[in-house]
Amino acid sequence: MWNPFFLDEDFVKRKVVVAMSGGVDSSVTAALLQEQGYEVIGLTMHHWDACAQEATAEMCQSNTAVAKAQKIAEHLQIPFYSVNFETDFRQQIINRFCADYLSGKTPNPCAVCNKKIKFGLLLEKAIELGADFLATGHYVSLVDADGRLFISKGADRNKDQSYFLFSLNQQQLSHCLFPLGELNKDDVRQHAARFGLQIPKTEESQDICFIPDGDYVKFLQQEEGFETLSGDIVHVSGDVLGKHQGTYRYTIGQRKGLGIGWKEPLYVVAIDASKQQVIVGEKEHLSCPEMTVEQCCWAIAEPKETFSTTCRIRYRHTEVPVTVEPCGHGVVKVVFATPQDGVTPGQAAVFYADDRVIGGGWIQ
Fold first, then answer.
1. Cellular component per GO (predicted)?
2. Which candidate in 60, 98, 176, 209 is catalytic?
3. pTM given for the model
C-alpha cells in the first residue's frame, strides 16, 4: 500500500497545507514534509484576539502565532497565509465553553475545536488552496485498516493527543497527515536543529489557547451570564455546609478551595446548576460505576449490540475496561469493570481498541 507520508517519484508532487503556530511541532512538521518532497504551504489561523491581554500592542505583535509562523515559513521558503476565524471561534468554541459551565459541565474546548475549526474550517481553506492534505503537529498516527482510517496513539506516550481527535470523521481523516506520530519530543527538537529552526525551548503549555494565563474563572466572569451564580455547598446527606460564589468555579473531584470544615476530606461529587448547588462528599462518593455518553461518533461501523472495549474519561486518564451498550440516537451506556473516580459531565469519553481510537462522545 502506498504510504502518503513519503512520495514516490512516479507520483505527481502533492500539495499539503501545514497548520503552523510558530512552535517547534508544527514547524518541524512543515520542514519534514518539504524534505519528503511535498509542495508545502504554511497556514495560520487567527482565532482569538490575545492582544487585549498583553501589556502593549508592540509586545502582542511580537508574540503572535502569525508573526512566529511567518518567520518560520520565510526560513523554509514556503508560501504562507493567515486566515481570520475569530467570529466562528467565538460562536462555535467560546460560546459553547461558557454554556457548558453555565449548565454545570466542565468543557473540553480543544476536542471541539479540532472537529469544528482546525479540521473543519481550516481543512476547507486548505482544499480551497488546492491542497491534497492538511498536516498538523499532533503526536498521533493514522492507520488504514480494512478500508477505514483510524487515529492511533503517538509513539511518545507523554505527548499522545489521540484523545482530542476522537470526533474526526472518515472524510476529514482522508485529508490528514500527522508526520510526528512516530517521533518523540527529543526527536522533534533534533530535527529542528538539523533544519536550522531557531525556536526557543519553552515549557509545554497546558492552558486553553484563549485563556493563556490559565485563569478560566476570571475569563468567565468577563462573559455575560456569570454575574449572579452564587449558591449553597451541600453535603450528599442534604446538609448545607457553606456558600459558593459560582458553580463554574468547581469541577468534579475537586478537593482544595472548598472553604468548609468537615471531619473527613470532602470532594466535589456533583454540580447542580439548575439549583446553583455544589454537592460534596467523602472520597467514596466520587466512585462511579457507569455513565451515559451522548453525541457519539465512530471510526468503526456504528455498533448496534453491546460490546467490550476500553475507555479514557479525560486526557491524562489511563484507559480502563468497559462494556458499551448502544441506546440509539448517538447515546451509549458505559459500565466500568471497576468504578472510576472523577467522571465529569462535559468531558470526552474516548473508546480504544489497543492503540486505535474507535469512537467517542461526551459524558452526559
1. cytoplasm
2. 209
3. 0.91
